[in-house]
């Protein structure tokens, strides 16, 4: 039998109300010990909480007999005044009744184990709690509502149908069934393979909604990268000085643009250097830039020289050139720069980052870019690397099955079985402990 667990469900610190949750077989006893007979199920009752002779608080008490509770077990909630001493006293009383403090995510893990939600929905719960932007919230809510579960279940169903045909062909060879029985599995498998392939392309956009669209500021020392970062962040996140080589570490600033989470990174100016610390900074700058979704190549309009080739090597097509310090040059020079950079296939933005509102055009352009890149990506087939890994695996088995159909039907059937397992792992229909541990360890205590 499970332990009975308790935890504060609300954040630490002073607040008007704090909620303490209890779940497990001794939940009714715990309510009895602190608040007397459990109230009517799912109805709040105002009670004096006491432990032995000691009064603890006046609180709302809710009693959720299983299985109609969040965890599926007997559960209760105490809505107490949100002072630290009150919460501590209630937690202590519960501990002395033989209950134990819940581990991170343990309530949701029990809900999962009791079939209240599947693994992607459990992840939706965690993501909803972590959601900082509107897009993250929509994505998490969709996932909690079963958007991913439904898609995976539909795919699983297609695999089960294909498997049925292949198994029929294995069990009743030759005479009893038409010889093209196995071949009938093919169109379904082909369609599914294509759907998974498309989903994988879309998955990286979905992950960007959850984890943030990554924008790297790169360029020569002193081009004004840190100045631009600070202007966009609207605070002095990075040190700005007139000394080239000021920034060494990557400075990441989360920025919400058009309702989407982005991560803006200021990086060390790119140059050959004897200084070991700066060289490490340059290495990190290149590595971050390589993984980014967009690179902004910041250029000092007065100093730029066409031969800045070592910087070009980090750029990809579709990246932007930000011509900074336009206050220092004339129109003729600007026109010249524009031509050179456009010829490189870069989108060109001009600014004086140091001037008030100097970065507003860049902010507007970035906002439209991110919205365009991510809109609609709230509901992809995969929001985590874990999902994408299993999708890749399922796809590989389906491809192998397709090459075996007609030759070795038994092998094809086995591959389809393996593909089914890979998909089942995403929703937790089959749930190796390590996958569960990975998912639930990211939760906070009390959820
Ligand atoms: N005139 C002018 N100066 C600017 C502008 N933007 C930045 N600067 C100056 O350029 C110098 C370098 O700016 P930073 O933001 O530190 O440049 P950086 O690219 O981060 O430099 P490193 O970190 O050393 O690679 C500072 O003295 C800034 O004040 C601008 O729009 N116009
Ligand atoms: K500098
Ligand atoms: Mg800098």
UniProtKB/TrEMBL annotation:
Mg(2+) binds at residues 226, 247. It is found in: Cytoplasm. Gene3D superfamilies: P-loop containing nucleotide triphosphate hydrolases (3.40.50.300), Probable tRNA modification gtpase trme, domain 1 (3.30.1360.120), tRNA modification GTPase MnmE domain 2 (1.20.120.430). One of its GO terms (molecular function) is hydrolase activity. GTP binds at residues 222-227, 241-247, 266-269. InterPro entries: G_TrmE, GTP-bd, GTP-bd_TrmE_N, GTPase_MnmE, MnmE_dom2, MnmE_helical, P-loop_NTPase, Small_GTP-bd. Its cofactor is K(+). Its EC number is 3.6.-.-. HAMAP family: GTPase_MnmE. Homodimer. Heterotetramer of two MnmE and two MnmG subunits. PANTHER family: TRNA MODIFICATION GTPASE GTPBP3, TRNA MODIFICATION GTPASE GTPBP3, MITOCHONDRIAL. This is tRNA modification GTPase MnmE. It comes from Caulobacter rhizosphaerae. The lineage of its organism: Bacteria, Pseudomonadati, Pseudomonadota, Alphaproteobacteria, Caulobacterales.
């Amino acid at each position: 039998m499970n332990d009975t667990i308790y935890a504060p469900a609300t954040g630490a610190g002073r607040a008007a109300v704090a909620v303490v949750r209890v779940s497990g077989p001794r939940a009714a006893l715990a309510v009895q010990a602190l608040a007397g007979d459990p109230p009517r199920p799912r109805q709040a009752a105002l009670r004096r909480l006491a432990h032995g002779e000691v009064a603890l608080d006046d609180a709302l008490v809710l009693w959720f007999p299983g299985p109609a509770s969040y965890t599926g077990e007997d559960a209760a909630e105490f809505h107490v005044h949100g002072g630290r001493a009150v919460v501590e006293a209630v937690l202590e009383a519960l501990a002395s009744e033989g209950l134990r403090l819940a581990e991170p995510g343990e309530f949701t893990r029990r809900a999962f184990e009791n079939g209240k939600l599947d693994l992607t929905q459990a992840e939706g719960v965690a993501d909803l709690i972590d959601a900082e932007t509107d897009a993250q919230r929509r994505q998490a809510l969709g996932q909690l509502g079963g958007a991913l579960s439904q898609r995976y279940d539909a795919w699983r169903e297609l695999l089960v149908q294909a498997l049925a045909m292949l198994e029929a062909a294995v069990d009743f060879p030759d005479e009893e069934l038409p010889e093209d029985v196995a071949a009938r599995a093919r169109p379904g498998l082909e369609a599914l393979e294509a759907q998974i392939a498309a989903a994988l392309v879309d998955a990286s956009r979905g992950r960007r909604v959850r984890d943030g669209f990554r924008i790297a500021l790169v360029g020569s020392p002193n081009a004004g990268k840190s100045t631009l970062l600070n202007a966009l962040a609207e605070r002095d996140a990075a040190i700005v000085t007139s000394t080239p080589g000021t920034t060494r570490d990557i400075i990441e600033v989360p920025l919400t643009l058009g309702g989407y989470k982005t991560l803006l990174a200021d990086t060390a100016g790119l140059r050959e250097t004897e200084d070991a610390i700066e060289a490490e900074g340059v290495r990190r700058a290149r590595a971050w830039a390589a993984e980014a979704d967009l690179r902004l190549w910041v250029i000092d309009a007065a100093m730029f020289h066409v031969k800045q080739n070592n910087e070009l090597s980090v750029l990809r097509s579709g990246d932007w050139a930000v011509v900074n310090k336009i206050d220092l040059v004339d129109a003729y020079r600007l026109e010249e720069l524009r031509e050179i950079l456009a010829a490189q296939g870069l989108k060109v933005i001009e600014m004086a980052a140091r001037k008030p509102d100097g970065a507003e055009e860049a902010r507007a352009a970035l906002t439209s870019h991110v919205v365009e890149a991510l809109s609609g990506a709230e509901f992809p087939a995969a929001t985590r690397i874990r999902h994408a890994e299993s999708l890749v695996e399922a796809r590989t088995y389906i491809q192998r099955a397709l090459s075996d159909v007609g030759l070795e039907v038994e092998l094809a059937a086995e591959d389809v079985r393996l593909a089914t397992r890979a998909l089942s792992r995403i929703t937790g229909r089959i749930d190796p402990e390590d996958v569960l541990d990975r998912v639930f360890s990211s939760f906070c205590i009390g959820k």
